[in-house]
Each structure stands twice: as C-alpha cells, then as structure tokens.
Amino acid sequence: MAWIGASVAHAQVSGSVSLVSDYRFRGVSLSDGDAAAQAAVAYDDDSGLYLGLFASTVRLAIDRQTGFQTVGQAGYAMRGPGELAWDIGVLYSGFSNPSDLGYADYYFGVASTEWSARLSYAPRYFGQPYSALYAELNVTPRSEHALFPLLHVGWLSAHPPPYEGSRSRWDGRIGLGYSYESLTLQLSWVTASSTDGDPDSPRNSAWVLRLTAWL
Questions:
Q1: Domain presence at residue 20
Q2: For the chain, percent helix, then strand, then coil, each to nearest 5?
Q3: Cβ atoms within 10 A of the Cβ of 52, count?
C-alpha cells in the first residue's frame, strides 16, 4: 500500500496485480513463509483526496489455513514547500480467516520524490487488546535507469506489551528493483527482531521476490 497516497496527483485510477514469494508486513510473514497473490486499486483526485483497496491471500500461523486480507484506505494529501507532500488518512484491515483480527490504523506522513516517512497508530492492533505505534522510513533514490535500490526501516511499539511478546521491535528491508514497461521485479532481504520465543513461528529473515504488473 506504500504507493497509494505517496504523492499528490491529478485525478486518476491506477491498479496492480502482484505475486510475492513471502508476504511480509512490517517484517512479519502473513503467508507463513509461502507465496501470496495480491491486487490493488487506487483513485487519486486532484483535490488531494485518495482512496485505495488492497487484497492478498494470507496464511496466518495461528491456524495454518489460507484466507484473505482486504485493506480499505482513505486519505488526503497536499503539497508542501519544495518537493514535499503531506498526507493524513485511515485504513481498515480485515481478515477472512480468522475474522476477529480486523483493525483500524490512523496515519500521518510526508514524502518527497526519493523518500517517505509515516507514523501510524492502531488502537487495537490485529484485533488484540493493545495499541501499536509504528514509525517507518522508506528510501528509493531517483534513478535514470531501470534498476533502482530499495530501503525500508520500521519500529513498532505496543502498549501494554502483548502477552508473551516484546513491547517493541524493529524491521528492515533492503533490495533492488527493476522496471520494464508495465512490469516491476523486486528482490529484497527482509528482517525483523524477534517477537516471541515460539520456535515454530516463521523465521525472522528471508529473501523476498515480488513481480508486479501495473494496470
């Protein structure tokens, strides 16, 4: 969802379909380390309003069964001084299996042509009885070539600490992307600090391959 609302654009509808070798969200696998299929559509109005819808297959470790995640998003973006754009919005993430993990996430962000930063707050993170504050920085330096670098750093703080889990953790992502016409291929190393002591939980680091077709 990072590309939705990243900048102020003229009124337009855009979309994508993707295949990813491991669906990692904030460093944690939502596909139990396996591949996932994803799709997204976005509407950007020249007034600054934007809407987005994202869907993905998921397989959460708590039941090992394949289900679906859908994310609806609405926000408002505006131009700031220089090359900066500011945005504020909310998204709601729901799950088909299990269905009690849905949660709302409120965010505020700033972006330029080469980087973006966002602060998010979820009162009941993944439907659990604790809130989560998440700060992230994404860097994609401008390149005149089809090959471009990728960098992400994030930090999450939960309050109160989740049961048998840590109060805070970090995650990171570094990789390369390649674009050709309407296709983008990305290979990145995703890692995160341990969230608990469960030896059966998905590994904390993995190589992730993503193929996206822009519609």
A1: yes
A2: 5, 60, 35
A3: 22
Write the single-letter amino acid at 172: G
Phi-psi region of 200 (alpha: psi -120 to 50; beta: other; left: phi over 0): alpha
Q: Retrieve residue 155's tokens.
A: 């930090």
pLDDT of residue 144: 66
d(CA 98, CA 116) in angstroms, rounded, equals 32
In a domain, 169, yes or no: yes
Decide if 49 is inside a domain.
yes
> 50 Cβ partners below 8 Å, 6+ apart?
4, 5, 42, 43, 44, 73, 74, 75, 76, 77, 87, 89
Count Cβ atoms below 10 Å from residue 88 Cβ, excluding itself.
13
Domain that holds residue 20: 12-210
What CATH number is associated with residue 58? 2.40.160.40
**Which pTM does this prediction carry?**
0.89
Cα angle 193, 156, 199 (rounded to 5 degrees) comes to 35
pLDDT block averages, 10 residues each, the chain of length 215? 45 93 95 95 95 96 83 94 91 93 97 94 94 95 81 95 78 94 95 63 83 95
Are the C-beta atoms of residues 58 and 91 closer than 8 Å to each other? Answer: no
192 inside domain = yes
